[in-house]
Amino acid sequence: MNEFDLIEKYFNWKNLNSNDLGIGDDCALVSIDAHQQIATSVDTLIEGVHFPKGTSASDIAHKALAVNLSDLAAMGATPKYFTLALTLPEFDESWLLDFSSTLRVLANQYQITLVGGDTTKGALSITLNVTGTISQGRALLRSAAQAGDHIFVSNSIGDAALAWRQIQQKLTPSDQLLQHFNTPNPQVELGCALVGVANACIDISDGLEQDLGHILKRSNVGARIDLSQIPLNKEVQSYIQKTQDWCVALAGGDDYELCFSVAPENLEKLKAIEKNLKIKLSEIGVITQNKGIERVGDFDKKCQSYQHF
Amino acid sequence: MNEFDLIEKYFNWKNLNSNDLGIGDDCALVSIDAHQQIATSVDTLIEGVHFPKGTSASDIAHKALAVNLSDLAAMGATPKYFTLALTLPEFDESWLLDFSSTLRVLANQYQITLVGGDTTKGALSITLNVTGTISQGRALLRSAAQAGDHIFVSNSIGDAALAWRQIQQKLTPSDQLLQHFNTPNPQVELGCALVGVANACIDISDGLEQDLGHILKRSNVGARIDLSQIPLNKEVQSYIQKTQDWCVALAGGDDYELCFSVAPENLEKLKAIEKNLKIKLSEIGVITQNKGIERVGDFDKKCQSYQHF
To answer: Binding positions for Mg(2+) 1 (chains A, B) (predicted)?
Structure first.
């Protein structure tokens, strides 16, 4: 059983109000009043699972907050506050100083405040719960893709996955790859700008195809994606040319870029966003009525998506 | 450095609005609009630290939600939703079934909904973040005790601590003690009823004196407590008589009863609450202008409070 089946089977109680949303999207949505909803998301990072042993406290802090902000971004929510549950094997002052100061810098950058937490002793693990607000009914949902929508991805993908692959092979990734892996930039500004422009949206944390697959499943549609249009940086491109290992791009995860679908009539608005935010947005395919993902391009290697269990 | 100093030093950024409250109380308070505040609290339970290895999934689920609801109770907030970060060493269907069904029963009982979560693989650990709402400015704060207030404790204390002591000594606690330790009842109804009646309030999670001490420190006051008035059940009473080990009552923790202070003019209202909720409330002392805790009664053994590091 993978993580999604597990959550669906044991923890999806489906007892929320009709406007609200529980398990099954990047964030939960809870109505606070007639005008506003709370968007909230929780993620745990464990040493040896989500980051290699020896990762600096600063990189861990960055990643922990960034991956959670990325979930808010995927809903179009504005960050408001977060809580921190920190489990440490021992009290280490320089570790805590590094961790807390990086956390604070990133929190200030994204205008989100740490309001509470818990510290415990045990194997190194960091759980953050971030909360944002969004106007009632305006969140970008996984379930809102329509056949005919154009599919976009922000910036480039596969960088973090290639870094992780190299680390596992005891190679040293380039600084650029390592930066993508250790200090990803959550696309909060883009997410907020996409409200009213994109239909469905998700952040790429488990791999492009798996995450796009969540949109397709929830929206009851399919997709055709053109491999040649997937935005890859030079290192990833040359790695794939050499190895034909497309998995770093399609199933790699950890990029925290946004994948979203836009109706044809909103493409002009999207161009304006791209220009305003000075961000690269690549059209990689279209939403189709046929279920599943159809891959167009020179590709025949099978990719397994990451399974938590 | 203990947990409180650690949080104060590294994570108390003090950058909230003046009406709001970050680290330093049972919950954080964040204003959502002019009428409402969000009260939010996070707690981590780790196997071997917060519950013994071999504790049933059902008891773990109960405790995890109960201790967090207890933090809402201590602020007088009404439970609304919670998130769950669950770290499991392996996929175990019967464990998950037990865990999720108990969690659901307790959540229904307290009218709180699970809205999101994360599951990861690793040493068994459960982090819950509960969120409630409270009318703007009405939360029961640690900082609101006044000299002359009467100090109360709900039900009895020391039961959970005695159970834990016996477990550590390889003894088998009675069913009643075990029930207090494994399935504490958060005093949510009492907490809500105390809004407008109590001044300061806290839940007893780390031990009566340590938790009362938080109220005293934040309120810049002291307390005189009468040991003979501390509500103890028969087992705890006879254990203390035999061993003179007052620590189970004063420094034991894990009772999740409320300790609160009430101004003399509100004592009649408190009597009405006691009657309505059919709950035992014991007056154990008074808030004083002199700092520190003065113990009245037959007691000379020193108790160390629980330190996280």
So the answer is: 43, 118
Tell me which amino acid residue B91 is. Answer: F
- The domain locations on chain A are 3-135, 142-296
B163-171 long-range contacts, CB within 8 A, separation 24+? B164/B252, B164/B254, B165/B248, B165/B252, B167/B52
pLDDT, tens digit, 9 for 90 and up, residues B186-207 = 999 999 999 999 999 999 988 9
* Amino acid in position A276: N
CATH topology of domain A3-135: 60s Ribosomal Protein L30; Chain: A; (3.30.1330)
In whole angstroms, give the CA distance from residue B40 to residue B282.
28
- Cα–Cα distance measured from residue B30 to residue B17, given in angstroms and rounded to the nearest whole number: 8
- Assigned token pair, A213: 């697959």
Task: List chain A residues with CB under 8 Å of B7.
Answer: 117, 119
Q: Which of B85, B104, B121 sits opposite A309 (nearest CB)?
A: B121
Distance from CA of A26 to the nearest CA of B (A): 9
Place of tokens 């907050």: A65
d(CA A64, CA A42): 10
Amino acid in position B112: I
What tokens does A31 get?
Answer: 């109505």
- Higher-confidence residue: A74 or A14? A74
Please report how many Cα atoms fall inside a 13 Å half-sphere around the Cα of residue A195, on the Cβ side. 19
Judge: A44–B104 Cβ closer than 8 Å, yes or no: no
Specify the CATH superfamily of domain B142-296. PurM-like C-terminal domain (3.90.650.10)
Residues facing B159 on adjacent strands: none
Q: Which amino acid belongs to residue A32?
A: I
* DSSP three-state, residue B224: strand
Establish if B14 touches chain A: CB-CB under 8 angstroms: no
- pLDDT > 90 fraction of chain B, expressed in percent and rounded: 65
Instruction: Provide the pLDDT confidence category of residue A298 given band limits of 50, 70 and 90.
Output: low
Find the residue in A nearest to B115 (Cα).
A22
Tell me: is residue A254 an annotated ligand-binding position. yes
Q: State the Cα–Cα distance between residues B94 and A200, nearest whole angstrom.
A: 36
Residue B262: name the closest of B198, B166, B171, B177 by CA.
B198
Tell me if ipTM is over 0.90: no
Under a CB-based contact definition with an 8 Å cutoff, are residues A164 and A247 in contact?
no
Question: Any idea how long chain A is?
Answer: 309
Mean pLDDT for the stretch of residues B88-97: 90
